[in-house]
Structures are given as structure tokens and as C-alpha cells.
Specification:
Strand order of the largest sheet: 1-7-6-4-5
Structural class: alpha/beta
Strand content: 15-25%
CATH superfamily of the largest domain: Thiolase/Chalcone synthase
Largest sheet: 5 strands, mixed
Bound molecules: acetyl coenzyme *A
Shape: globular
Number of strands: 14
């Protein structure tokens, strides 16, 4: 059976670094509160880069790292909840800039699990033989959907993009994606959400009244979160996913060299490590420097881990995420 192998990684983050002390000038918070509750010290907040800009830069880096021609790519999937346009998709915008004529390109929304969902989706096309080379991007300019007056959310996030290039494994080669799991629970959709546009046309009640009736206010398109509920969901589901993924891959916990989790909160990662009986030192963390970059976090972390030499050939690596929806997912890889 064909397997999907990651042959290149890339990432990009805006150069505008915002420290916890900087955020404390906007809302009533402190470096002590943010660091101790989340592990975050600073994040990148775009002052000019669009979602497409960041996705393009990460994609370019991944293609260079894979050492392929952009024309070899026949599928582009972009995971994002903050595209520049409702249409065209961010994937098509990137395709246009890369000049990858003819490739299939579309966006996918699984919130902070988007990178894992996109990776698994692309791998299905590769494993069936429909496509041979895919570009997967996770990107969010999450700063544009933050309520910068809400200290319970605006301190947590940052902007950025991560990308991988995927290829089919050689015949008989056991490298690449060993197994994957995707899951969701729509009954919990209200614990983490960002509203889109309400119905508004000449045939419904006047727009302003309609929006009020539906509970929308002028800050409707911003992230609202029940922090403690999200925390509990994350610890429970990510722990269960890691255990299930290890079982499905026919491995033991001690066989896993590195876990690259969605980077939301160091306390979540530490609780998951304890639940899974895996040393927290095996969980790669860079959220101190980026905060929670939503769809981008796993792609950025994977690129940094790879470039830092934290991943060696043959290592068994787990990518695991959770996010709005609620969604969650995991992939077990034989790193090549
Ligand atoms: N600075 C100072 N005080 C704050 C801040 C802040 N930035 N935010 C909230 N507080 C206050 C609250 O008002 C509250 O004050 P009170 O006791 O006077 O009422 C107090 O701190 C405690 O608030 P809690 O919400 O109970 O704080 P908690 O310990 O739960 O930590 C946090 C909040 C960090 C958000 C935590 O719930 C969490 O990590 N949740 C997980 C959610 C997460 O990581 N989300 C990221 C996005 S989800 C995703 O990526 C898919």
C-alpha cells in the first residue's frame, strides 16, 4: 500500500513581536498571569502580512526544503479559519502566487485541528494514487478575529503559518503516516466560537433588528471561549487520542520519540503527558514564543522541531490537535 511521506517543512511568522508586557498595556493583565496560566511569553501579531502572505511564505519554504519544483504539486489544501476572502480560497490564492497550474486547491476549516485534518485529507488522495505530491498549509491571522478588549482571549493567540510537502512513499517503504484518527463533537460547538455573517437580504426583517434578534452585536465576529470547558475537553480528548493512536499504530508509549501537539497552553500539554504516562520532555513546545497560532501551530512546531534536529530518521512521531467544533485528531508518523 502507498503511504504518505512528509518530504519538506516550512513556516512563517510576522516579524512584529508582542510581549506579555505589551499586551498588559492594552488590557488588565500581567506577564505573571499569562506565563503562569499558559506558558506564553510572546507572540507574533501581523502589522501587514495577510493570511495569503503568510501561507505563501510557509509554502515556499516547505517546497524549497522538499527540493521539488512547484509544478510537481497536484493538490493544495489550506487549513484556515481566517482567509482573506470568503472566495477565492486561501489555497487558490497561494496556488496563483506559486504558479502551480492545474493543481486541485481548496480550504478546510477544522479550527485549531485544521493542520491535522488537512494532512489526513491530503494523505487519502495520495494513498489512493489520485495525486502524487500535495502541499498542506495551516495558516491563521487570528489577530483579526480577536476582541482586543477581552483579556480572557486576546492574550492567548498569535499569527503565523506552517506547511508541509507530501509525497507517496517508495514501494515497500514503511516510512510516513502509519495511522490517523479524526474526531469531532458538534454538541460542544458553543464553548469556542466566532460568528460569521447573519442572514441579511431584502426579504427578512431589517438587518439591524434581525442581528439583534439573533443575539449578534457589533463584536460578533470575534473569538468567544469558555476557557475551562475548552481546557477539560482538550486534556480528555488529546489524552484519549494519543493512547488510541499508539494502539492503532501497534506501538507502545515508550516507542514514541516526539509528540507535536497543538500549542495552546503548556498546562494542557503537561496534563496530557501525565495522563498518557509519557515524559513531558517528549512534547515539543514553542508556544512561549508564538502563543496559540490556531491552524498553524502544529505546522510551525513540526518545522521548528525538524530544523532543530529534534527528529531523526525512523523516529515515531505523533501530531495531535484539538480546536473549535469541537474537533480533534492525531497522526502517527515514521519520520523520514
Ligand atoms: N489576565 C489576568 N486575569 C485574567 C485574565 C488575564 N489575561 N484572563 C482571565 N483573568 C481572570 C478572570 O477574570 C478570573 O478572575 P476572577 O477570579 O476575579 O473572576 C480569573 O482570572 C480566573 O479566570 P479563569 O477563566 O478561571 O482562569 P483559568 O485558570 O481557567 O485560565 C485559561 C484561563 C488560561 C484561558 C484556561 O482556562 C485555559 O487555558 N483554557 C484552555 C483554553 C485554551 O487554551 N484556549 C485556547 C484556544 S482553544 C484552541 O486553541 C482550540
Amino acid at each position: 500500500m502507498r503511504r504518505t511521506v512528509i518530504i519538506g517543512t516550512g513556516s512563517y511568522a510576522p516579524d512584529n513581536i508582542i510581549s506579555n508586557d505589551d499586551i498588559a498595556k492594552l488590557v488588565d493583565t500581567s506577564d505573571e498571569w499569562i506565563s503562569s496560566r499558559t506558558g506564553i511569553k510572546e507572540r507574533r501579531i501581523s502589522s501587514k502580512d495577510t493570511t495569503t502572505d503568510m501561507a505563501y511564505e510557509a509554502a515556499k519554504a516547505a517546497i524549497k526544503n522538499a527540493d521539488i519544483n512547484p509544478e510537481d504539486i497536484d493538490l493544495i489544501i489550506c487549513a484556515t479559519i481566517t482567509p482573506d476572502y470568503f472566495m477565492p480560497s486561501a489555497a487558490c490564492m497561494v496556488q496563483g502566487r506559486l504558479k502551480v497550474d492545474g493543481a486541485a486547491a481548496f480550504d478546510l476549516n477544522a479550527a485549531c485541528t485544521g493542520f491535522v485534518y488537512a494532512l489526513v485529507t491530503a494523505s487519502q488522495f495520495i494513498e489512493t494514487g489520485m495525486y502524487n505530491k500535495a502541499l498542506v498549509i495551516g495558516v491563521d491571522a487570528i489577530s483579526k478575529i480577536l476582541d482586543w478588549e477581552d483579556r480572557s482571549t486576546c492574550v492567548l493567540f498569535g499569527d503565523g503559518a506552517g506547511a508541509v510537502v507530501l509525497s507517496a512513499s517508495e514501494a515497500g517503504d514503511n516510512k510516513g503516516i502509519i495511522t490517523s484518527i479524526l474526531s469531532s463533537d458538534g454538541s460542544k460547538h458553543s464553548i469556542l466560537q466566532c460568528e460569521a455573517l447573519p442572514i441579511s437580504n431584502p426579504y427578512v426583517v431589517p438587518a439591524a433588528q434581525s442581528m439583534q434578534d439573533m443575539g449578534f452585536n457589533k463584536k460578533s465576529s470575534v473569538i468567544r471561549m469558555e476557557g475551562q470547558e475548552v481546557f477539560k475537553y482538550a486534556v480528555r480528548n488529546v489524552s484519549a487520542l494519543i493512547k488510541e493512536a499508539i494502539l492503532r499504530a501497534d506501538l507502545r508509549a515508550e516507542d514514541i520519540s516526539c509528540i507535536i501537539s497543538h500549542q495552546a497552553n503548556s498546562r494542557i500539554i503537561e496534563a496530557v503527558a501525565k495522563n498518557c504516562n509519557i515524559p513531558s520532555s517528549k512534547f515539543f513546545m514553542n508556544l512561549d514564543r508564538y502563543g496559540n497560532t490556531s491552524s498553524a501551530s502544529i505546522g510551525i512546531a513540526l518545522d521548528e522541531a525538524s530544523r532543530a534536529g529534534s527528529l531523526s530518521k525512523g523516529d515515531k512521531v505523533i501530531l495531535v490537535g484539538f480546536g473549535g467544533g469541537m474537533t480533534s485528531g492525531a497522526v502517527v508518523l515514521d519520520w523520514s
